[in-house]
Automatic annotation (TrEMBL):
Pfam families: NYN
Compositionally biased region (Basic and acidic residues): 169-189
Spans annotated as Disordered: 169-202
Signal sequence extent: none
InterPro entries tied to this protein: LabA, NYN
Organism: Ancylobacter tetraedralis
This protein's name: Uncharacterized LabA/DUF88 family protein
A Gene Ontology molecular function term of the record: RNA nuclease activity
Domain NYN: 3-160
Amino acid sequence: MEKIALFIDGANLYSATKALNFDIDYKRLLKEFQTRGYVLRAFYYTTLVEDTEYSSIRPLLDWLDYNGYSVVTKPAREFTDSQGRRRIRGNMDIELAVNAMELAAHVDHIVIFSGDGDFRSLVESVQRKGVRVSVVSSVHTQPPMIADELRRQADVFIDLVDLQSRIGRDPAERSSRMHEPPRFLERRAPAPAADDDEMSEP
């Protein structure tokens, strides 16, 4: 059985699914990939905004922690832009890349949930170690969430639209907060070419 590791860029995935107008059921997501092989690890990466983290994201992170995910967090940094607006900057690329390189020797297949073109070099490095890499994002947003160079480098590109029926949350459950994505992690612009580590205040 193929050994699989999942690496979820929480902010990037949230931006993509919001643009596609659906919510992810993380229990269904894990089950979907467990049908494809043995999921050795499932990582979820996000930054935390201290003054909103409890009400906005803590229930989700706690649920993930107790239901098969390894949650990796760090504090976001706040700054004021040139127009005097409060902005939040947070980037988990290094943490994701380090974990992926550490696990590459122990898995057959790595799945990265992100369209960030900065991961192209990581994908190439992991592939040189003999690991197959799939990237999950979407070309059905305007502009596409997946950077062209990342899509070309991946062994397999999986569009979120094709996964929606299997990992999406029932719209009737939208009022439930248990699997609610972290609202404050919405990116200022959905394009992969944008400054990837900057996020807007809700």
